[in-house]
Amino acid sequence: QFQFCIFFFSSRRRHTRFLPVSWARRCVQETGIKMNIFEFEKDDDSNFHIDFIAATANLRARNYKIQESPKHKVKLIAGKIIPAIATTTAMVVGAVGIEILKYLQNADFSMYRNFFSNLALPLFMFSEPLPPTKHVDKDYDPIIGGPVKAIPPGWTNWNKIDVKGPLTVKQIIGWVKEMYGVNVASLSYDDKIMYSTVMKTTNQYLEITPEKVYEIQYQKKFPYYKKYIEINVTGDNNAGEDIDLPPLRSVSYTHLTLPTIYSVQISVVAVSLKKKNTNLPII
Residue 195 belongs to what H/E stretch? Predict the structure, then answer.
């Protein structure tokens, strides 16, 4: 039995790939992997500690489009922050890691915990997660200054409404009216206004798709890796009540033009449960 850490790096940076969570979950359940404590040692290349930190840090950097770091730089940085790794960072990563293991093992929801800490007090506290806040009808909302109707009743921040496209902004407005009886007053995403009844300049976007609106307003191509645009809707119904509607996800795959992957490098780090470590070749 082996415990694997697998990272995929293609010849083109934007094609980093991860193993599905289902694979990791199956690996944990079927192999019965046991967790062992390792002391961090940056100067021992045989333990793969720096390899692991470099790989995961660069995967995160690639996700957020920030500069990646070579292994020697990661080793230098990690050596300077040993006190942080040994205290606050280790504590947070440990608490998060425990919850990830629960998820991989399909633990019952009652087993999950929130973690709060304050090293100055000191305070370390675990609590059961609270359910998400439900959006409900209100006879009077102090912010709106009138009644508010939630559609659908009891929706939470986990709920989204998928709008399968490609649809133009005008078609999306008509779709929301037909499906939910909402007279749309505005559509917005990020910090941009896609449509507003009080901003006549947004009428120019009515006959184009949200992806095209994005390209015009941001002056750049719509990111190839984005599968949808999350759109916030404001409006009212025919009774004059303001509507509280989940965000729309404008889903359109026509813009995706994925280039060919010419080569893929798979780096495998395996730790045997019987031996200290096992070296495998790079595929």
Answer: strand 192-196
DSSP 8-state code for residue 73: H
| pLDDT over threshold 80, residue 125 | yes
Q: How far is it, in rounded angstroms, from Cα 97 to Cα 87?
A: 15
Q: What is the pLDDT of residues 2-12, one digit of tens each?
A: 333 444 333 33
Q: How confident is the model at residue 266 (pLDDT cuts 50, 70, 90)?
A: very low
DSSP per-residue letters across 224-247: TT--EEEEEEEEE-TTS-EEE-PP
- Upstream peptide bond of 152 is cis (omega within 30 degrees of 0): yes
- Measured at the CA of 104, the angle between CA 29 and CA 45, to 5 degrees, comes to 90
Taking the C-alpha atoms of residue 238 and residue 234, their distance in angstroms, rounded to an integer, is 14
Nearest to 112 by CA among 127, 123, 94, 125: 127
Separation between Cα atoms, residue 203 and residue 207, nearest integer Å: 8
Length of the chain in terms of residues written: 283
Separation CA 170–CA 188 (nearest Å): 14
Q: Is 234 exposed, middle or buried (0-12, 13-18, 19+ CB in 10 A)?
A: middle
Identify the H or E element spanning 185.
strand 183-189
Is the model's pLDDT at 28 over the cut of 80?
no
Pair type for strands 138-141 and 228-236: unpaired
pLDDT confidence of 166, banded at 50, 70, 90?
A: confident
Q: Confirm whether pTM is higher than 0.85.
A: no
Vertex 175 angle, CA 173 and 178, to 5°: 110
Count other Cβ atoms within 10 Å, centred on residue 113: 15
The CB density around residue 242, as the number of other CB atoms within 10 Å, is 19
